[in-house]
Amino acid sequence: MPGLSRFASKDMDVLVDAINKYSVGLDDTFTRLHAFGLNPQSSSYPPYNIQKLNDNEWKIELGLAGWSKEEVEVSTKEKQLHITSIRERPSEGNDEFLHRGLAARSFDRTFNLSEDVEVSSVTFCNGLLTISLERIIPEAQQKKVYEIT
After folding, report:
1. Do residues 99 and 64 share a domain?
2. Confidence (pTM)
3. What is the domain range of residue 28?
4. DSSP SS3 for 75
5. Residue 148 domain-assigned (yes or no)
6. Within the chain, where are the H helices?
7. Are 119 and 76 within 8 A, CB to CB?
8. Residue 133 shares a structural domain with residue 64
9. Mean pLDDT of 93-119
10. Contact of 88 with 75, CB cutoff 8 Å
11. Distance separating alpha carbons of residues 146 and 138, to the nearest angstrom
12. Per-residue model confidence as pLDDT tens digits over 112-146
């Protein structure tokens, strides 16, 4: 596309200023992204995939081997999706492991959601938590075709 420039991280202030000149109501979006960047998630557990199905649907899959659906909570608050272990895993006591490759630690994974994206379903099957997301397009923004009389 002609006229578009590529920005680097050093140009972020210029980019935000340019966007603010021509945008209304995006302040919250920038605040949420900035806050999320200040608190990066330090753990890669649990592993996850994000799959784009089309322009209006996505799927997030989390590998939760050894967990049950009763031990996991999926919630949204302030346009953030939270996946959290709701019960501390019991310690194995005096069990001796030659190798311990299955994680049994608690977790809290967070994803930012756009203002128009909502959770459509949550399933848990064979240790795989699947969260389906969809963009809700308001009726006023949907295409309308009018009959010509």
Report:
1. yes
2. 0.67
3. 9-40
4. strand
5. no
6. 12-21, 27-38
7. yes
8. yes
9. 82
10. no
11. 18
12. 888 889 999 999 999 999 999 999 888 888 888 99
